Amino acid sequence: MGQCGITSSKTVLVFLNLIFWGAAGILCYVGAYVFITYDDYDHFFEDVYTLIPAVVIIAGGSLLFIIGLIGCCATIRESRCGLATFVIILLLVFVTEVVVVVLGYVYRAKVENEVDRSIQKVCKTYNGTNPDAASRTIDYVQRQLHCCGIHNYSDWENTDWFKETKNQSVPLSCCRETASSCNGSLAHPSDLYAEGCEALVVKKLQEIMMHVIWAALAFAAIQLLGMLCACIVLCRRSRDPAYELLITGGTYA
To answer: What whole-number distance in Å separates Cα of residue 251 and Cα of residue 253?
Structure first.
């Protein structure tokens, strides 16, 4: 009965180690996705520390790959030292992912204030005739999120760019995809996206943070199961004589 329990624990542990390798890839992908998205929306963030959860989750994913390798070798070779190392490193990664969850919630709450403060600055510096990085960001966001202005397209009337052009029009990136003849004129508001960008940017960035949080929580749960199985194998290895004989190939006297 003891040997069956140990064998089952070992089988589950080996399977979990394989999952860890897959999890490592997914975590690194999620972290990289946050970095890429940040690059698209970086003008809406004055606080670069928003990227900390992404950095931590990529580091955790890399470490998780190493953990899977150590765990597989330790389980197959019946190494007490290897399994103990496996549990300790797994515990460290678990703590790291708890930190990711906490930081994710902290920065998720800060997103709205960050975007509200920065999007107004970016819109005020918009220069459609000679687009700089900030202008390209605004155009990109309006096209991708199908929005116009901060709260709606009328916000553009308060910008220096609108007053200088004097043509009563908003950027072409405000034009609906279905409006083929749109030139951004306020005389044809039905051709323009009606929703403002601020709420959509906040929603987008908060969704990304939630992806980070849920990924960290899911794999933290898997790591708890891995630590439990490793501890079971370690404990029974030290207390079950039949298991010791099974490893050494000995027999009862």
So the answer is: 6
